[in-house]
């Protein structure tokens, strides 16, 4: 029987994609802590615009240094849609929604996003839905629900807030699915940079609020806004695009279920919010579900090299998120 184990180069590509996904999840989890701090001084639109401007500036400088240039015409449709939905609308809706509902309710609603990504990916991109992916997403979603219920406060939710968080989840899913085809002809850095620019242009009507609120905001809130732009936006969205270009949208969406567990840990470390037993159980379920969804069957493990054919055999690309 011929040896069909992954080649060293294929294994390296798999590890790089997994590392990129891990960086993304950690930084996105840290964003929830920073949003809570900056959101006390900045309105939703102003915070989104400040974050996007900081991210676009950072990415623009990197693009100039690397001489990336303008993406090809074939990538612009996906870049424009992801920029409008994910970088623009999603950030404003999420910031606004989190001011209307408690953190637990926001987490519950927004975590429908990976499920929507899987459904849209199967419908529009032809992503396969292997049993391990479905089982892992089910376990992780149960964990996210557990974390959300344990964090929900009494009387802290509104219909408007729930609707805004749901719209944010839909925009997130649509942006990811639109971004995937663009990565077939443009680099992850190009897709992220120009998507961020599109989102910033969409948020320009909030420029007046940003200038006014920046004059009154404490330095800590402004620094948190800049952190959101440089790390959870510029860096994390680029590593996300890098990993997404090497696997399916459904599998990448499932990976983000590790975020609730990390949010619990970071809130404990940086905000002094000691999690209860139910919260810890939910976090463990989230991580266990991600591990299942990113694992490979024995047949897949004997397949060809990871990353060699990212579509339609996603089990061979980026299968280890940690």
Automatic annotation (TrEMBL):
Keywords: Membrane, Transmembrane, Transmembrane helix. Residues 300-322 are annotated as: Disordered. Pfam families: EamA. The chain crosses the membrane at residues 15-35, 41-65, 77-97, 103-126, 133-152, 158-177, 189-211, 223-242, 254-271, 277-293. PROSITE patterns: TAT (PS51318). Residues 20-147, 160-292 form the EamA domain. The keyword Membrane applies. Residues 312-322 have a biased composition (Basic and acidic residues). The keyword Zinc-finger does not apply. Belongs to the EamA transporter family. This is DMT family transporter. It comes from Streptomyces violaceochromogenes.
